[in-house]
Write a structure and sequence with these properties.
By secondary structure, this protein is of the alpha/beta class. The protein has helices spanning 11-15, 22-34, 61-64, 84-97, 115-126, 141-149, 164-177, 190-213, 236-243, 259-262, 295-306, 308-318, 322-328, 334-350, 370-380, 385-397, 409-417, 419-423, 431-436, 440-447, 450-461; strands spanning 56-58, 69-74, 107-111, 130-136, 153-157, 181-183, 223-227, 248-254, 289-293, 357-362, 404-406. Helix 10 (259-262) links the parallel strand 8 and strand 9 (289-293).
C-alpha cells in the first residue's frame, strides 16, 4: 500500500489565508472551534483572524512607561496556542516534499524545550506520523499534558530550559537505535527560519502599515525584539531590516544564562528561550544588540498581569482601561513578558519616540503557566496592592539598562564563533559549512527557497 500523504498550506497561504480555496478556509475556521485535531486545521496556521487581520496589541504606555509604540503579535490563536506550530509544520512539510520522511513509516522526533515540541505533537499526527517529543523534565506540567492530548509521546531528559545538550544526546541515541527515527531539529532546520522570515516578518509589515493609517507610528519598524530559543522567531528581523534600512534586530537571553552576552551558562526559568548555545539557524552576523533579562522579573511581570489583585491595581491606581487589562490578563506567557521587557529596554536605550514602532512576539499564553504562577504565590505570598505596586514600578516602569552589548565587527565575530563548539565539534557540521554563514549571501539564498517550496507543494497537492 502506498503512503497516504497529507498536505497543508503554502508559505504564501499562511501569510495570506484569503488565498486558500474558500471551501477549505471555511472548513478550517469551523474546525478551529469544533475539532482542533482535524487535519484541516493546518490551514489555520496563520497570524490572521477570519477577517484577514493580524492578531496584535499595542501595549498601553501607562504600562510600558516609554513613548515608543510597543506592538506585540500574539500567538495564542494558532491551533496549538503558540506560533511555534508554524515552524513545526514548515519543517515537516519541507522534509516531506524532499522525500526525507514518509507517513506510516517514520517516527518524527521533535527536540524541544516546549512550544516547538507541542507544535510537533500536533503537526506530526495530523500529517499521519508517529511523533515523539524530547524535552527537559523541569518544563511546566501543562506542556506535557498538551503533548499527550495531541496524540504524541514524550521523553523527559535531565535538567531545565538550558539543558539542550542532553536533548541532543538523546536524539543521537534514538537515531542510532532506528534509522526510521527522523530528527526534526528546530535549532538546525531552515524551515523554521523560513516560516518566520517570510510569514512572521511580512505579517509585521502589514501591522505597522495598518497602524499608520490609524495615526499610530510612522509605518516602519525601528526595532524587532526577540528572545532566542531555536532563534526561529528572530528571523523575522532579517526581512524587516531588508524592508526598513534603519530597523534594528535585538536579541534577548536570560541574565541567568548569558551565553551570547558573555559566553555564560546556567539554569533559568524563562521557558522557551536561553538554550545555552548559538543555534545553526541564527543569523547573528545581522543582529544589532544582545540584551539580558532577569527570569524572576519575567515571572513577576506575568504574575502582576494575571492575578486579579494585580489587575485591579493596574485599573484603579495606574489608570489602564479595564478592558485592556482584562484582555492582557491571559494573553502572555513567561517568554512573552521577557520580550516585552526587552522592548521597553530597547526603547529606553535607543531613545525611541512616539513615531517609532518596536515590535515583538508573544509566543504563547498563560495556559501553559498556571502551575508556575501558583508556585510564585507559594514563594512570595498572595498578591496585594503593595506587591502589585512594587512589581509595576520595579519590573515595567523600572526596566534597567544593564547587560546590553551592541553588535560591532568584533562582537559579532565572537557571537558567531560560539557556533563552532555545538555544530562542528558536536553535531558534525564542517568548518566550511559554518564559515559560509558569515556572508549574508548564504542567508539570502535560504530566503529565496520560499517560492520554490510553495511551487513544489502546489504540485504535490495537484493544484
Amino acid at each position: 500500500m502506498s503512503p497516504k500523504y497529507i498536505y497543508g498550506p503554502t508559505f504564501e497561504e499562511m501569510l495570506h489565508p484569503e488565498k486558500i480555496k474558500p471551501e477549505i478556509r471555511q472548513r478550517a475556521l469551523r474546525a478551529l472551534k469544533e475539532d482542533i485535531l482535524d487535519p484541516v486545521n493546518l490551514y489555520n496556521i496563520t497570524w490572521k483572524d477570519e477577517n484577514g487581520k493580524v492578531h496584535y496589541i499595542v501595549l498601553p504606555k501607562e504600562l510600558t512607561g516609554v513613548d515608543a509604540n510597543i506592538i506585540v503579535l500574539y500567538g495564542r490563536h494558532f491551533p496549538t496556542g503558540s506560533h511555534k506550530v508554524g515552524a513545526t509544520y514548515s519543517v515537516a512539510m519541507e522534509k516531506q516534499l524532499a522525500g526525507e520522511i514518509t507517513p506510516g513509516e517514520d517516527t518524527l522526533v521533535w527536540p524541544s524545550t516546549g512550544n516547538y515540541g507541542i507544535g510537533g505533537a500536533w503537526v506530526g499526527p495530523r500529517l499521519g506520523y508517529d511523533s515523539l517529543v524530547i524535552l527537559p523534565m523541569l518544563m511546566s506540567e501543562e506542556r506535557f499534558k498538551k503533548i499527550e492530548s495531541f496524540g504524541a509521546r514524550y521523553i523527559k531528559t535531565p535538567g531545565c530550559e538550558s539543558n539542550v545538550k542532553e536533548i541532543y544526546d538523546k536524539c543521537k541515541e534514538l537515531r542510532a537505535e532506528n534509522p526510521r527515527n527522523k530528527i526534526l531539529n528546530q535549532f538546525e532546520v531552515m524551515g523554521n527560519y523560513r516560516f518566520h522570515y517570510y510569514v512572521t516578518g511580512n505579517s509585521v509589515v502589514e501591522v505597522v502599515e495598518e497602524l499608520k493609517k490609524e495615526g499610530v507610528g510612522n509605518g516602519r519598524v525601528s526595532a524587532f525584539v526577540s528572545a532566542m530559543g531555536s532563534a526561529g522567531t528572530i528571523a523575522a528581523g532579517d526581512l524587516l531590516k531588508q524592508k526598513f534600512y534603519e530597523s534594528k534586530i535585538i536579541g534577548l537571553e536570560p541574565i541567568q544564562c548569558r551565553t551570547i552576552y558573555s559566553n555564560g551558562y546556567g539554569g533559568h526559568d524563562i521557558q522557551g528561550i536561553g538554550d545555552k548555545h548559538v543555534t545553526w539557524i541564527h543569523n547573528v552576523m545581522n543582529m544589532d544588540a544582545i540584551m539580558c533579562i532577569d527570569d524572576v522579573e519575567c515571572k513577576e511581570g506575568l504574575w502582576l498581569l494575571s492575578d486579579p489583585e494585580g489587575q485591579e491595581y493596574l485599573v484603579k491606581d495606574v489608570g489602564i482601561p479595564e478592558d485592556k487589562v482584562r484582555f492582557m490578563s491571559d494573553l502572555f506567557g513567561i517568554s512573552s513578558i521577557c520580550n516585552i521587557l526587552g522592548a521597553i529596554k530597547t526603547a529606553k536605550y535607543y531613545g525611541f519616540g512616539p513615531r517609532d514602532n518596536i515590535v515583538t512576539i508573544a509566543t504563547d499564553s498563560l495556559d501553559r503557566y498556571y502551575s508556575v504562577m501558583k508556585a510564585m504565590e507559594g514563594t512570595y505570598g498572595k498578591m496585594d496592592r503593595a506587591k502589585a505596586a512594587s512589581l509595576y514600578r520595579g519590573v515595567f516602569q523600572g526596566a534597567k539598562l544593564d547587560f546590553i552589548e551592541e553588535g560591532t565587527v568584533r562582537t559579532r565575530e565572537r557571537w558567531f564563533n560560539l557556533k563552532y563548539y555545538t555544530w562542528v565539534e558536536q553535531q558534525g557540521k564542517t568548518v566550511e559549512e559554518l564559515n559560509a554563514q558569515k556572508s549574508q549571501d548564504w542567508w539570502i539564498e535560504q530566503q529565496a527557497l520560499v517560492p520554490e517550496f510553495d511551487k513544489k507543494l502546489r504540485a504535490a497537492r495537484g493544484d
